[in-house]
Amino acid sequence: MSLLRAWLTGIPAYLWSGWGAIASLFLLLAAWEGVAAVYGELILPDPAAAFGRLAGLFASGAAWPELAITARRAITGLALAVLAGSLLGLAAGVSITASMMSRPLVTVMLGIPPIAWVVLAMLWFGVGDGTPVFTVFIACFPVVFIGALQGTRTLDHQLKDMAVAFRLPWRMRLFDLYLPHVVSYLFPAWINALGTSWKVVVMAELLSSSDGIGAALAVTRSHLDMAGTLAWIAAIVLTLLAVEYLLLEPVKREVERWRDLDREHA
Question: For the chain, does the N or the C end have fewer beta carbons within 10 angstroms?
Fold first, then answer.
């Protein structure tokens, strides 16, 4: 309850401090407007045309089903990656041998580009949910795994020895000592994986699916519809901005406060 209360009371100050981010978005829109004025509507429609098309997609109801399909695939692959990556990363962090053996495998997974995983997934799963969900999972898993591994490996052994020496209850050790430190590494990894999941799922849908935002982008590309393409891209970006800055960023700030407290007590 105290964490929830602190998060709620910190929302007004957080929103007020976001003027810099809002200013950068307006600068981006101004640059977009300038480039559109130079190259014309055929190359790059102006923001008014793109957002007008996006508003029309929402008004007609065409945007909601595609967003829901893409979100379902991204969330499914991300949830599997978060679950498997967190558990396996924590397990590998406990053992030095497991940590050393897993690092080359994670490097290989990170080194293979997502487009290659899409091609393999198309051969394995065909057209449908399997290809985008698998591609999201395989792209996000190493990111979460490394976060969990680092969080476990960087636990302060002196604090652990002190907790054992003073015979602290296991619940207190878990929730007051171990978990805040590990989550301070895990949560940024989850946020990074969230952004990766949306980028990868749209790419996978573009190549392998007949529905979702990626498939809608394929249609606008085939019709040379630049305004429609930018409208779907804006829908993705606005969704990510809303999720990250209205939901995840305040929680992230609280988690980073835990990390600063850990460093002060180290």
Answer: N
In whole angstroms, give the CA distance from residue 213 to residue 133.
Answer: 14
Residue 263 confidence (pLDDT): 53
Question: What are the residue ranges of helices labelled H in 43-178?
Answer: 47-60, 63-94, 96-111, 114-125, 130-153, 157-165, 170-172
Q: Which CATH class is domain 47-265?
A: mainly alpha
| pLDDT at 167 > cutoff 80 | no
Output the DSSP codes for 250-264: HHHHHHHHHHHHHHH
Tokens of 111: 């080194």
- Specify the pTM: 0.80
Q: What are the backbone dihedrals phi and psi of residue 59, each rounded to the nearest 5 degrees, phi first?
A: -65, -35
Question: Which residue, among 211, 213, 264, 215, has the nearest Cα to 238 in the 3D structure?
Answer: 213
